[in-house]
Specification:
Blueprint lengths: L1 E6 L5 E7 L6 E9 L2 H17 L14 H8 E6 L1 H13 L7 H12 L4 H12 L5 H14 L1 H16 L5 E10 L23 E8 L5 E8 L8 H11 L6 E4 L6 H9 L3 E6 L6 H8 L8 E5 L5 E6 L1 H23 L17 E4 L3 E4 L1 H8 L4 E6 L5 H9 L2 H12 L11 H27 L6 H8 L3 E6 L6 E6 L3 H10 L2
């Protein structure tokens, strides 16, 4: 294939893609036409991208043979799912992951995006739909290799691509953790039972810490023992990230689950600025009275100096107040039902959820403490944020609201990428599994960004679903023995996707 600039009588130049593989010149595609030099250069650039994205793909034509239908059928070598390679494989390369030359790394990453499953089922998919003759033991051996060689490199590629996307240095980062459970019963040094965010308390698990940029682009990650307190995971990940890229200043944004006096002190000592969700109900009595005395209106906020290094921003929202009230009423109805059925005992009285409203009456019966409920109502709609930044309170609140991006990252990882449960037992393979999922999520985010940039109404999930319906046919000509490929794009959805991403 090559690019032809065809000058028309009107002086307009048409940019065309020409194929000569059959010995004859054949017009494959007209990219566009213009008489303006800057527009012509843009069309030439688009033509080059089109050729790169369809490299090795040719049209086949058997019309010069009798009974060509039979010849075509006789010559079909294989039919493969090719859309994921055209769409996601191209993004994989654009990000820079193609610097990892291992074909299996790319295939495992694309499979995680399109057909997430166990490694055994993944090999079955690669065999049936990609004609890759590999067995699960080959995959396991590759995971051993990946663990040793690619974790830091994958994170660096993601970081450098994110810098280009944001067109700015990274000064604000968002951190959170989640738990990922195993289909196993036994524990080891890494896989341990602990508080499970998936509700799988009986299963051993690991804790995954993830660092993302503004916009939710993944930057770094690490895994920890399943019973590790999530607050102790933050500093190791952030310190490593800051050191790796020689960053001088970082503002760290995290929710209240990572809040502890130790964390705040260490962040301050290490020179970090921070924006952390605050547990305002846990403040000393005098400070709580000061907060309740604010009498904020809907949408109002104020700033209070907590100590020499930390400020507390308090906000009030009527919408949040209604939600707090609704959740409490729902929790109380559940408690009342459990009391009536005798499900609650003295052991049930703790600070977990709405159990904090329970009390022992007459040294025997479990009952609801309505005084505590009235005290709790005073806090409806109030929320606090700790910070030591010099940002004004509106900027602080804006950054904290962006924390939902990391919650979305975990949701995508657990649902679309099916990162859980993990079936591996060996730590190096667990590490490799997370590395592949991290890479897949980065591709997902870039696909999401490009769809938005192209003003498409397609979601990343929908685009991937459409790509999975695009097939390529490999044909060996029964007479000439030439090998040609044909991409099958028939439906309107497929055509729209192909036009968007130039394949």
């Amino acid at each position: 294939m090559f690019i032809r600039q065809k000058k028309n009588k009107s002086g307009v130049i048409s940019i065309q893609i020409i194929d000569k593989s059959s010995g004859k010149y054949k017009l494959l595609k007209t990219i566009g036409s213009s008489a303006v030099q800057t527009e012509i250069e843009q069309l030439l650039s688009e033509a080059k991208k089109w050729i790169q994205s369809t490299r090795g793909v040719q049209e086949f034509d058997f019309t010069d043979y009798k009974q060509h239908t039979e010849l075509v059928l006789e010559g079909i070598e294989q039919i493969s799912v090719h859309g994921p390679e055209l769409l996601l494989g191209s993004i994989f390369n654009q990000i820079g992951f193609n610097k990892i030359k291992d074909v299996l790394f790319k295939q495992l990453t694309l499979a995680r995006l399109c057909f997430p499953a166990s490694k055994l089922k993944t090999t079955d998919y690669l065999s049936k739909y990609q004609y890759m003759d590999i067995d699960v033991q080959q995959v396991y051996r590759y995971l051993d290799k990946l663990y040793d060689t690619q974790k830091e490199f994958v994170q660096r590629v993601s970081y450098e691509h994110t810098l280009k996307v944001l067109d700015a240095t990274i000064s604000v980062v968002f951190y959170d953790v989640t738990t990922i459970y195993f289909e196993a019963e036994s524990e080891d040094e890494l896989r341990k039972t602990g508080f499970s965010k998936d509700g799988k308390h009986q299963h051993p698990q690991i804790v995954l810490g993830l660092l993302v940029s503004k916009g939710g682009y993944p930057l770094a990650y690490d895994i920890f023992e399943g019973n590790q307190f999530e607050g102790h995971t933050m500093l190791p990940v952030i310190d490593s990230f800051k050191s790796q890229y020689g960053l001088e200043k970082l503002v760290v944004v995290a929710d209240a689950g990572l809040l502890s006096k130790e964390n705040i002190n260490r962040l301050h000592q290490k020179g970090y600025e921070y924006i952390l969700g605050a547990r305002i109900k846990s403040e000393p009595k005098a400070f709580k009275e000061r907060i309740l005395a604010l009498k904020l209106g809907n949408g109002e906020s104020t700033l209070i100096n907590k100590d020499q290094q930390t400020k507390l921003i308090v906000t009030y929202s009527e919408k949040r107040a209604r939600k707090d009230s609704y959740n409490r009423e729902r929790g109380l109805k559940k408690l009342e039902k459990q009391i009536k059925t005798g499900q609650l005992t003295k052991a049930s009285i703790n600070n977990r959820g709405y159990n904090k409203f329970l009390q022992i009456r007459n040294q025997i019966a479990v009952a609801i403490d309505f005084v505590k409920i009235e005290e709790d109502k005073k806090w409806d709609g109030l929320k606090g944020y700790y910070t030591n930044t010099t940002l004004d309170k509106d900027e602080v609140l804006k950054h904290y609201k962006d924390l939902w991006q990391i919650e979305k990252a975990f949701r995508i990882a657990k649902t679309d990428l099916e990162i859980r449960p993990i079936y591996h037992r060996v730590q190096r393979r667990i590490e490799s599994h997370i590395c592949i999922a991290f890479t897949a999520y980065k591709i997902y985010k870039e696909l999401e960004r490009q769809l938005k940039e192209k003003k498409s109404n397609l979601s990343p999930e929908k685009a991937i679903d459409i790509a999975k319906t695009i097939y390529a046919v490999k044909v060996i000509h029964p007479i000439t023995k030439d090998i040609t490929y044909k991409i099958i794009i028939k439906t309107e959805e497929q055509k729209i996707l192909a036009k968007l991403f130039h394949f």
